[in-house]
Amino acid sequence: MKTLDRYIAGNFLYGYIISLAVMLGMFLTVDLFLNLDEFAEHSELGIGTVFASMAHYYGARLVLWFRDLGGVVIVIAAVFSMARLTRNNELIAIMASGVSLKRILAPILFLALVLTGLLVIDQELIIPRLTGELTRKQDQLPGEASYDLWFIGDANGNLVCCFRYEEREQTMHYPLIVLRQKEGDDTWRVVGRIQAQRAIYDAARKGWVLEGGQLLGSSRTEAQRSDFSDFETVDFYATNLDPEILPLRRREGFKSLLSLRQLIELEQDSGTRRTELAEIAVQKHSRITTPIINLIMLMVALPVLVCRDPKNMKTAILISFLTTAACFTVTFLSSLYATEVFFGRVHPALFSWLPIFIFFPIALVEIDSMRT
Questions:
Q1: Which of 90, 86, 69 is nearest to 16 (CA)?
Q2: At 316, which helix (H) or strand (E)?
Q3: Which residue from 15, 77, 99, 326 lies 20 to 30 Å from 24 (Cα-Cα)?
Q4: 198 touches 173 (CB < 8 A)
Q5: Contact, 294 vs 70, CB < 8 A?
C-alpha cells in the first residue's frame, strides 16, 4: 500500500500547496490594493524603505492568514485531490484491485493531522512573537510607531495611560498610572496615582524608570470621596506591561494573538476585568476545539467526495461545500454567542464545543455509510 499512499498523499499535498498559495495571494493582493497609498506615505525615504516596510508587514500577516485559512485550505485540497482521482477513473481501478475506498482516506487524514499540528505551532509559538508587526498599521514603519495608551490594566490591578508612547525608544511621555485596590469581585477603589514627565523601560528591573515621577496617595473622607494628598517622589514602577505587551493590549481582540500560556497568565492577573474572563475562556477552549473542528470539517466532506462516477462529481463537490459551510457557520455563530448571557450566565465552554457535538456524529455516520 505504500505506493498507493504516496500517490494519494502527493495528490493531496499538490492541491494543498496550490490552494494555500491562491488563498494567501488573493488576500495579499486585495489588502495591498486597498492600502498601497498608506505604504507610499514614506516614499521620500526611498523605494527600498517602502518595500522593506511592506515585506515586514505582510510577512507577519501571512502567518496570521495561514492560521485563519488553514482548516478551509485542507478541505479544498481534499476536494482537489478526490476530484482528480474521480476524473481519471482511478477510484474504480483501486476498487477493482480489492482496496476499500475507506482505505484511501487514510493518507489524507494523516496529512491533515500533520498540517493541523502546524496550525497549532503557528498559533502557540509563532504568532505571539510577531505581535509587534501584527499590531502595526500600514502607514507606520517597523518599530517606529507612536500612539497613545489609555487605561491598560496590569497584573497589579493598576491602570496605565500616557499621551504618547514611542516604540523605538520604548518611552512613555507624560505617563499616568492609576493605583487601585480591590474591594470586591467587581469593585475597585482608587488609592492614588503616579504621574511623570517620561517613563523609560528597564528590561533588567522589569519595569519603567520614571523621570519627574510623583506619587499622590488618597484618603477616604466621611463623604466617601477621594482626596489626594501625601505627595512623594517615585523613580520606578514595576509591572508586567513591557514593550512587547503594550502594543498588543491596545488592539481590539488582542486575545486571539496570545498563546495558551499567555491566556492563562492573563486570566490570573488581578487587573483583568471580570467581563474579560468569558472571552479569555472562549480563547482557551478554542485552542483545543479549533484543530478538532478543522478535522471534523474534513471528515464531513471526504465521504461525499468519494464518488466513483465522474458525472456525479459536481453534485458531490456541492454537497461537501454545503456541509463544510454549515460547520463553519455553526462554529462562527457559536463563537459569537459564547460570551453572551443565557439563563443568567455565560456558557463559553458549551458554545465552544457545540460544533463538535453536532458535526462529529454526522461525520461518523457519513464515513460508516460510504459505499466502498
A1: 69
A2: helix 313-337
A3: 326
A4: yes
A5: yes
The 10 Å CB-count burial string (b at 16+, else e) for 242-266 is: ebebbbbbeeeebbbbbbbebbeeb
Whole-number Cα distances in Å, 47 to 31, 32, 57, 138 = 19, 16, 15, 15
| HSE of 211, CA atoms in CB hemisphere, 13 A | 10
Residue 81 grid cell: 485531490
Nearest to 63, CA basis, from 32, 20, 13: 20
Nearest to 149 by CA among 175, 179, 131, 178: 175
pTM for the model: 0.79
Distance from C-alpha of 64 to C-alpha of 77, rounded to nearest angstrom: 20
Sequence-ordered alpha helix ranges (H) in 253-312 = 260-268, 274-305
Q: What is the pLDDT along the chain (372 residues), one digit of tens a residue?
A: 688 888 888 989 999 999 999 999 999 999 988 888 888 877 777 788 888 888 888 998 999 999 999 989 998 998 888 888 877 777 777 777 777 777 888 889 899 999 999 999 999 999 988 887 787 777 777 767 788 888 888 888 889 999 889 888 889 999 999 998 887 766 788 888 899 999 999 989 889 999 989 888 765 444 444 455 557 888 999 998 888 888 777 776 778 888 888 888 888 776 677 777 888 888 999 999 999 999 998 888 887 777 766 677 778 788 888 888 888 899 989 888 888 877 777 788 889 999 999 999 988 888 777 766
